[in-house]
């Protein structure tokens, strides 16, 4: 058998790592962990969240953005 | 009756001590229409992630309340007519899950 060129390194993260199962859109500290330094929302591949949680996080981030708690994606360094 | 969370961003030029009383005035609408205000949480001055109407800061406040849908709508309308209010957001929330964290 050929060795998998990319060894499995799954389940790196989960919201559970922080001991939580849901996010609050007002909780900026937590939400910041789910955006890149450009302000983009991190993909599920990176966050390792369940689909439901990922959707929840995405909505929470979008809500927080509307209230200027988090930045919109931008090219400029923040 | 439903549970709502209303977040308001006020102009930074206001005195933070006056924020709660002036919000109260607006919240009377809720009380008159048979709703009840659970909690008013004034976060205070915070840096905005981007400018809103040329302001770099804003005074944040979060209100938890129970009311009929039409009543919050009216509150939201009245708030947005106020010029010292930079932005508002009404979110419906399951009260069991509503956390008080920032």
Automatic annotation (TrEMBL), chain A:
Gene3D superfamilies: Ribosomal protein S18 (4.10.640.10). One of its GO terms (cellular component) is cytosolic small ribosomal subunit. The keyword Lyase does not apply. Keywords: Ribonucleoprotein, Ribosomal protein, RNA-binding, rRNA-binding. GO terms for molecular function: small ribosomal subunit rRNA binding; structural constituent of ribosome. InterPro entries: Ribosomal_bS18 (IPR001648), Ribosomal_bS18_sf (IPR036870). Binds as a heterodimer with protein bS6 to the central domain of the 16S rRNA, where it helps stabilize the platform of the 30S subunit. Part of the 30S ribosomal subunit. Forms a tight heterodimer with protein bS6. This is Small ribosomal subunit protein bS18.
TrEMBL record, chain B:
NCBIfam families: S6. GO terms for biological process: translation. GO terms for cellular component: cytoplasm; ribonucleoprotein complex; ribosome. This is Small ribosomal subunit protein bS6. It comes from Tamaricihabitans halophyticus. SUPFAM superfamilies: Ribosomal protein S6. GO terms for molecular function: small ribosomal subunit rRNA binding; structural constituent of ribosome. Belongs to the bacterial ribosomal protein bS6 family. Coiled coil: none annotated. Keywords: Ribonucleoprotein, Ribosomal protein, RNA-binding, rRNA-binding. Binds together with bS18 to 16S ribosomal RNA.
């Amino acid at each position: 058998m050929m060795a998998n060129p990319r060894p499995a390194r799954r389940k790196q993260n989960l919201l559970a790592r922080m001991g939580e199962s849901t996010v609050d859109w007002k909780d900026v500290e937590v939400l910041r962990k789910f955006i890149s330094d450009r302000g983009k929302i991190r993909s599920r591949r990176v966050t390792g969240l369940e689909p439901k949680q990922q959707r929840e996080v995405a909505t929470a981030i979008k809500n927080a953005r509307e209230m200027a708690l988090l930045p919109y994606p931008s090219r400029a360094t923040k | 009756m439903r549970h709502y969370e209303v977040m308001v961003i006020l102009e930074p030029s206001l005195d933070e001590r006056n924020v709660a009383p002036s919000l109260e005035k607006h919240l009377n609408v809720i009380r008159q229409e048979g709703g009840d205000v659970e909690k008013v949480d004034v976060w205070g001055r915070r840096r905005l992630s981007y400018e809103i109407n040329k302001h770099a800061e804003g005074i944040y406040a979060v209100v938890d309340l129970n009311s009929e849908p039409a009543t919050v709508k009216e509150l939201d309308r009245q708030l947005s007519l106020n010029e010292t209010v930079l932005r508002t957001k009404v979110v419906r929330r399951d009260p069991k899950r509503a956390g008080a964290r920032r």
